[in-house]
Structures are given as C-alpha cells and as structure tokens.
Amino acid sequence: MCGPSNAAPQILLSQPRNYGGTPAMVALDSDPTGLHRVLDDTVVLPQAAQRLDTRRELWPDEVRIRVEKLNLDAASFRQLERKHAGDGDAVRREVLDIVATRGKMQNPETGSGGMLVGTVEEVGPRSPLGLRPGDRVATLVSLTLTPLVIEDDLRSWDGRGEQVPCDGYAVLFGRSIAAVLPDDLPADLSLSVMDVCGAPALTARVVEGYDAPTVAVIGGGGKSGSLSLAAARHAGAGRTIGVVPHEREATQLRESGLADEVVVADARNPIALRDAVTAAGGPADVTVVCVDVPGCEGGAILATAERGTVVFFSMATSFAAAALGAEGLAADVTMLVGNGYAPGHAAYALELLRENDGVRRLFEARLEAHA
Asked: Does residue 17 form part of some domain?
C-alpha cells in the first residue's frame, strides 16, 4: 500500500467521514499534523484519536526514530503506580497493552503520555524538522500523539520508574518537535529536563510581565517545579516561595538555594496552602502549579493575589474545577494552561540546568532514586 518510493503514500479511508457535512470516501496525502495516521471513524487530531497507524513506512514529511527510552509523564506514572499498588510487573503489562491497543502511549485515565529518546533511522525527503539519520534526539511532543511500536516487551524495565528502557520505533510528523541531545550532559539527565521544558519557559514569560513579583511554585522540589523556580528568579522575581508536601523535600529544596522561602503544605488542602504561602510572604503575584496529584486548584487560587496569575502545569488539573472554583471564590485571577511548548524552550531549560547547581543536584538525585 505504501513503501519507500518517491511517490507520496496515500490512505483511502475505509469508512465515510463527514467533512463539512458531506460524507465521502476521501484519499489523504500526509498532513503535517499527522491526520493521515488517525484510524478513527471521525476526523480528530492524533492526540484525540483512539488509535494511530503505526506502519514503519514513511510519508515524505515524516521521521522514524529507533526508540531507546520512554519517559512517562509524572501524572500518568503515578496513576498507574497507585492503580497497581506498586506492582511493577502489572504497570509494565498495562503500558504494553495501552501501546498495542492505541498505537501510542496515552494513559486512558490521565490522558497523558510522556516523551522519548532515540536515534533517527530514516528521514522523509520533505521533512521540515532538520534531522539526519544517526542524530540522537529527544522528542518534544507528547507520546499521546506519537505513533509508537514496542518490539522488546519492555524486558529491561521493572515498572517502578518513569524512565522506561525500550526497543521499538516511533514516527514524527511535519509539525512534530525534536531536539538533538547535547554532548555535555548525560542522556538521562537531558531527557528529564526536556520532559518538562515548557514549564520554565512559560514561567519566565509570565514573571517578566510583572515588576519584581512574588512567585509561588507548588511542587517546587520536583522537575518542573525546580526549573520554574530557577526561571522565576532568572526573569526578575522579587521573592520566590517553594511549596513541597513533606519535610524531606523541603530540606532538599532549601539546600538547593532555589527558593527564598520553603514551606511544607498539602496542596490539596486549600486553606493550609493559602496560609502557608501567605505566611511565607504571599499571596503570590504568580502561582505555578507543578504537582502531579488532583485537587490542587482551589488552594492555588486562594494563594494568588487579586489580578495575579495562576499557571497550571499539572496534567492532573481539572480545568472545570479551576474555572468554577475561581468564580465561586470571586477571585480575579488569570489562569493559564501550560501547553508544554514555547519557542526555544528546550535550550532555555538546559541552560538553567547548566547554570544552577541546585537544579542539577535535584535532577540527579531524582534519577539516582529511580535507578
């Protein structure tokens, strides 16, 4: 049906689809969004699709990656870990089932996926990504929209950590994003940083819109949280407050020097969170939510000053709860959804890591804990 020829492969849709109200059998050339790989009976983008076409043959604007490692996003991994009570074998089996069923890694409960590291195997002649065969890259788009085939049954993964050794292949589209791994950092460290590189980029952009604001980062001891604290200070924050769930993380965050104040609070308790941030110098002009548990919307809103901004970077966030919560509290705050992309976000996050020993120590400690 399609193969390594000069002609662009086409798909003849096996079911009628409704384009503008006109059901028709439609032949599609490749689309830069990856629409041509969607196997659903309705027209949806790959992220919303139930199943993707994972054939290894490329359309002209695609790139195939030989996968070395998956990095499951924190919300997805924690949900799987809780569901299976820490049984790594059960977690591994479910990840395999999800990928085999859907042609991509998209947790059906959280809707999230992660990213991957691998080596470019083949580049279509019209790919705009600037990649070459042999490049070792990290994808900067979610596994929820990336066609993925696992070929080793994840035999080298014990199911107990977010980073998943893997042999298989994945396909990038014309509008995908990938970054060549830097030579000066270990691959696992680069992968961890790139997994959350959207958070510091947007945090810096928001902080720059204020005059020396107070910035609170909920989950300040985690990957995205520590980078967001570094970005806030780099962008001109007058005061930074890191919120963590227990004293062990508080000690680590204090030793990193990334926050002016470190407080321990349960982010799911809105009053406790508000009071902790207020006691540390709040309310915050900018509150960045980087935790991977649900139920933190109300506390983040209460911890934020009037006309302030709340940035939600957690895939565990209920955006209905956030919107209705702010309305119910008569809170005049701007709420932003962190979408994980900003121009130059990967390079910026890596520079923050290189320039901040505290950030690097936190990342390396996390990697050692999951080794």
From this structure: no
Residue 288, both tokens: 């960045």
Of the residues 152, 185, 218, the one at which a domain ends: 185
Q: Which of 187, 216, 171, 229 minimizes the C-alpha distance to 362?
A: 229
166, 341, 287, 281 alpha-carbon torsion, rounded to 10°: 90
Do residue 93 and residue 203 come from a single domain?
no
Mark whether 363 and 226 lie in a shared domain.
yes
- Bond from prior residue into 283 cis (ω within 30 degrees of 0): yes
> How does DSSP classify residue 282?
-
Range of the domain at 83: 53-185
For residues 61 and 98, membership in a common domain is answered with yes
Closest CA to 288 of 359, 361, 226, 246: 226
**Low-confidence residues of the chain, pLDDT below 50?**
1-27
- At 106-141, the pLDDT tens digits run 999 999 999 999 999 999 999 999 999 999 999 999
Element (H, E) at 192: helix 187-195
pLDDT in tens, 339-371: 888 899 999 999 999 999 999 999 999 888 876
Q: Identify whether 36 is part of a domain.
A: no
